[in-house]
Each structure stands twice: as C-alpha cells, then as structure tokens.
C-alpha cells in the first residue's frame, strides 16, 4: 500500500495540470488573504461579486447539460416512474399548501432580497438601506455590503431579470426548489433503498413542518439543501463515470454550494475526499481547465468574509448578551439540551417531526457503524454508498459546529432552520440502514409509519403553524406589508429602523436614527410636498401593572416630531405595533415643516427658471432622507 501511494504521488507530481491547479490555488489564497487590503476587498466584491457567481453558474449549467443532456433527450414517458413523480408532487403540495408565503426570518430574508434588488438594478452587491422615489423612478440612495453569501440572491436576480422586479420572486424560487429537493431526495432514497426507499425519503421530508415553514419563506435554506444533496448525487455520478464532464459538474456544484450558507463550506471536505479517492484508485488526476481555474472563481468569497473582521457586529453577539466568543466547546452541553428539546417538543412549540426524529436518531448509531465499516473498504463499495459515507462526515461536522455556536440552540425560532441539514442527514441515515434488514416488510412498515405520521401529526401541525406565532418580527413584517398593499399611492416616506422592508417594496424609507439626525432635511421635503405623506413605524411595550405604554429603544423620534396615530395592532401580549403620521416637525417652538407664508418671486425668463430648477434639484438630492 505505501508503495502504491508513493507511485500515485509521483504520477501526480509529474502531471503539469496538477501544478497548474496548485498555482491557481496559491494565487487565489494570496489574493484573498494577503495581497488585497480590507479597504479594497469589500469594494471588489461590491462591483465584481455578481460576475464571479455568474461565470461559475454558467460553467455549472454548461457541465450539467453536457453530462445529462443525452439522458434527458432519451427519456420516454413510458419509462418514467409516475408513482414516484406523484409522491414528489404530492409532497411538494403538502409543504406549500398550509403556510402563507412571507418573510419568515426577517433580517436574513430582507437582506437577501435587498441584495438581489441591487444586483438586478445595477449589478452591484449591496443591501439598500435608504431609497427614494425621484420623479417617478425609484433609486437606492445608500447601501451596505451584507455578510450573507451570494448564490441565493443571484438566483433571485435571474428571476427579476426574466420577469421584472417583484418582492415576491424569492417565493417563486423556493417553490421550485421545494419540488427539486423532493425529487433529489426521491432519487437518493431509490439509490440507497430501492423504489420504496425513494417514497420514504419524500414522505419523511414532506412530514417536516420546519421544511414547510422555509419552503414558503424567502430565505436560502431550501437552496442549501438542494445544493448539498445535489452535490452528493453528482459525486455518485463522478465516482461511477470518472469522466471530465462529471468532475466539472461536481466541482462547480460544490463551489456554488459553499456560496449558499457559510457553514456549507464544510461539505467541500467530503467532496475533495471523494475526488481524491477516484484519483488514487485510477492512479492519475483528471483536471479539465474549468477545474483548474475554479479556485480563482472563489476569490470573492473570502474577501466578502472580511466583513466579520471589519465589523464586529456581523457576528450578532449583541443579540445574546453574556457570550464572548462565537464558537466554543463550552457551548456544547447547553446546545445539546436545546437540540433534544427541539427534536421531541410538542407540535404547538416546534415545527418538528416525531417520526423523522425517532427513526433518524434510532438509525444514527447503526449508520455510524456502517460508515466506519465502509471507510475501511471504499474500493469495494458501490458509488452511492461511497458518496453517502463520505458526506456523512460532513453532516456530522456541520452538526458539531452548530453545537459549538453561541447561538446554536435549535429550539430558538431564529435558529431552528439551521437544523435542516441535520434532518437531511437523519433521512439519509434511515435510508442507508434500511437495506441491512433482509425482510422487505421492514421497508414497507417504515413507509406506513411515515405516512401515518404525516397525516396524523405533521399536516395538523402545518395547518395550525402555532410554532410561527411567537416570532413577532415576522408577524410585524406581514402586517406592514398589508399596510403597503392598502395604500392607494406609494410616494410616501416611511421612517422605520427596518427601512429595507420598505425599500425592497419600492417605498421611500429611512432609518429612525437617520431621521432624528436629519430633521431639517425631512422638514424641507414636507414643505415642498416631495412625499404624499410621512409615516413612522414604532413598537410599544405595555406595563402589565400600570398599562403605561413605552416606545421601544431606537424607535423614539423625540418631542420635535408631532405624530398622529394612523393604525395599530396588538400582535403579541403587552406589545403594540403602531404606524403614525408625522404632522409637524418643530424646533424651539417653531414649526420647521410649515410652508412659508409669503409668495416666492417667480423668475421672469427661461434662463432664471432653469437656474432655479437646477439649484433646487441639487438641494433636493442632498436633503433626501
């Protein structure tokens, strides 16, 4: 064995393309971590990030067409397993039918939509924070680089480009991804445990309310699952075919998978192990040109992650006082306790699936033994077992990382979506263990139990979706979107710390703190009727003993702003969400927003009119809120 390995290394060292891959990798590392300073890193991602993802996506689509095009053209209706297709369609309908489409995790989903908006409008990677309607054209006035990877907003941008910009386009993407994911799960189940195994995979996933919650949201969780499972299945194809086009498809699938969620980079390790396993078994490295240049197409990714060094707030540790490090081993016991609570909580508390949790965690120890056994004899295993065995290491590492995360509590309304890759790993564990039972009745029994769990527990849980009612920001966002729909005109200004919500809906908006600092500018626009109205959103808390209402910190405009309540709603006990109209802006007893009580001199000639208009427009633009 040592002699064979040394011979393989010698062959690799004599291959010119291996050295080219090493050089492009070193160049990418030097540029990403050494040569480009922080001051230029974010600017480069802002202006070039879209194009990096576009090139990678185009190469991936091209490789997929070359790999699967002949097979797709050869498909005949009679050869299609229509029962499996019915399971996939039925499962997708169940996931999408019971929850309303909306923004489920507000900041993540709005930031992603905002990034797609700027990508669509001018191909820059920015999240808009201030935007205004300027003479009928909506323009982004100020934005910031977001920390979230770019692949999901890129896909939403493509939908914007093809159908026009609409805030609802992320739901179109996630609806399609829901059926794609179930189709891939059915295929994986079929490869692992036969035709019925594919049905089990679909039913187990369709019975997961958490998946339904995210299928009807605007986040990147569905895309993350699709890319992880799709990359695994492309690994199966590459291990089986061992050709250049399959390697390109696998490589670029992994490259894009890493650009969905931050922790998805973990799955690049099993991907690399699978490729190296093939190369060692073949005694040579297959390196087409797209694979050689792939490291350079990931250059923007570590540059974007400089945000975590430049902005300490990017870790969001302020949201959980008492924690000093984002990752630590000391968090594991507490996070494991919360994970157990999540997987086996009542349906009114968490969007879990008892059937999947019970079957999955029961299968995990047996699956672990199976993985250890197959790692010792990979050469004799079939492709699906090799891929699942190696990717099992990725699922274990991802779960371990979440348990070390300071906010890794799976029963938290904001964090429970991070358990979705773990749920996918549990499904694969069940499917990998099932063939170890010789009697077919076991597989049929698991299918029956899954169907009963779906009908008896999961569907009622999705229909009630009581687990989503405790997340106040999501309900407030839905209420504010209703307000947008009810307004006869959209040329008003909204003052709101969640200004991005209004900007992505084409409504002029500015954060509350900016409005406080720019009172005179807003008064200027009120005097000049720039906006049909000026509103402010505020959240108030109610003292249970006295009934006194207090404005949430950061929402108070101060005494200079005279407000008139327009509409309010109690969306949670002892909490009132209110939208008010700004009637006046005062300072030292004088009303700044009042129209002047004298008539301005009208210019007599065209030149004076043009000059006055030009001067006013300059002042207008500088004072936009």
Describe the protein.
The protein is globular and about 85 Å long. Helix 4 (82-97) crosses helix 7 (169-206), helix 5 packs across helix 6 (151-163) and helix 6 (151-163) packs across helix 7 (169-206). The longest helix has 38 residues, at 169-206. It starts with a helix and ends with a helix. It is of the alpha+beta class and 625 residues long. Helices cover 59% and strands 10% of the residues. It is built from 24 helices and nine strands. A hairpin with a 2-residue loop joins strand 8 and strand 9. Strands 3, 4, 5, 6, 7, 8 and 9 form a seven-stranded mixed β-sheet that branches. A two-stranded antiparallel sheet has the order 1-2.
Provide the β-strand percentage band.
5-15%
* Cα end-to-end separation: 70 Å
The helix tally amounts to 24
Q: Give me the Rg, rounded.
A: 28 Å
Helix and strand content put the structural class at alpha+beta
Low-confidence stretches: none
- The best one-word shape is globular
How does the major sheet shape up? 7 strands, mixed
**Quick check: average pLDDT?**
91
Multimeric organization: single chain
Number of strand elements: 9
